Amino acid sequence: MKTLHVDLGTRSYPIHIGTGLLDDSELIRPHIQGQEVMVVTNETIAPLYLERTLALLDGYDVATVILPDGEQYKTLDTLNLVFDALLEKHFTRRCTLIALGGGVIGDITGYAAASYQRGVNFIQIPTTLLAQVDSSVGGKTGVNHALGKNMIGAFHQPQCVIADTETLNTLDDRQLSAGLAEIIKYGLINDADFFEWLEQNMPSLLSRDPDALAYAIERSCHDKAEIVAADERESGVRALLNLGHTFGHAIETGTGYGNWLHGEAVGCGMWMAAELSHQHGWFTQTELDRTRDIIEKAKLPIQPPTSMNSDQFLDIMAVDKKNLEKKIRLILMKGIGKSFISDDFDNTLLKELLEKNIAQAKQE
Fold first, then answer.
1. pLDDT at 18 over 90
2. Which residues are catalytic, by number?
3. What SS3 string covers the chain?
4. Residues 202, 336: one domain?
5. What is the number of structural domains in the chain?
6. Domain extent at residue 289
């Protein structure tokens, strides 16, 4: 087992990464306040891991909520199912919520914890690659709105993160690739050495080599933890973690939540961010080729959905948490591992890039 720490003063917490962690009650019990525990999971994960999780909680007053599975259910209506269960059980503000599942479960549970009685503790047990390397770390919680992804939420840090890599054995190939998008992101943002390692080890990651996956998860969590510690509430450098996300969120919103996986949309978004950086002369052709190659090797799409047009993209991109004074802000790159935040790009080039990519997708 490897243990990393997110350094946030009194809100600091450990990230435990390893195999068989779902059988180690000593990792979770020190982080439970009081006797009331509610495990929130979904219909896919419950048959696989709920029983093992409940075995860790012997002696506590435990309740469960099993939600429908899918990004399309990351809504206020679904969130209310968690509140209903908490209130029906008469849980107090000394209760602890446990998120057992992927990013949707983590975001919903975290937002419920941030809101219930104005804030209760919660623990993350991520079961997808994407959640283990990204969404379970950093305290971003929330739900989607029809007009924008993750526009309703709160910052609320977990008490701990327990990433049992054995849960990845039940992950399908498409979800695995979606998680790889967020791993590639860290290399592009500020870790060129890690990007080079990913180029050399992508076949091992796709074949689920346990050592390669463990290293990639640890390195990703390390990179994210450093950024979160420096900027917990995304007033500056933390926005870099959104590389590809402004494009990606537009895809998810424009096509209907759940039709594209989050990681698939981010992979396509990173490619478009790389192209736009290249068009401005900030990103070399070699760097652009390397970026395209690794995204494609991870079996992620680089072409946007043909059902969208450039105006629709831009309208949705205008509803983004990074934007200031109604100007779209993007994460762009001046080299692999050298990302930056910019609203000083050519909007004409952005529109032309969107139109070109959509046209190419229609020809295929």
1. yes
2. 118, 140, 182, 224, 234, 238, 242, 245, 249, 262
3. CEEEEECCHHHCEEEEEECCHHHCHHHCHHHCCCCEEEEEEECCCHHHHHHHHHHCCCCCEEEEEEECCCHHHCCHHHHHHHHHHHHHCCCCCCCEEEEEECHHHHHHHHHHHHHHHHCCEEEEEECCHHHHHHHCCCCEEEEEECCEEEEEEEECCCCCEEEEHHHHHHCCHHHHHHHHHHHHHHHHHHCHHHHHHHHHHHHHHHCCCHHHHHHHHHHHHHHHHHHHHHCCCCCCHHHHHHCCHHHHHHHHHHHCCCCCCHHHHHHHHHHHHHHHHHHCCCCCHHHHHHHHHHHHHCCCCCCCCCCCCHHHHHHHHCCCCCCECCECCEEEECCCCCEEEECCCCHHHHHHHHHHHHHHHHHC
4. yes
5. 2
6. 173-363
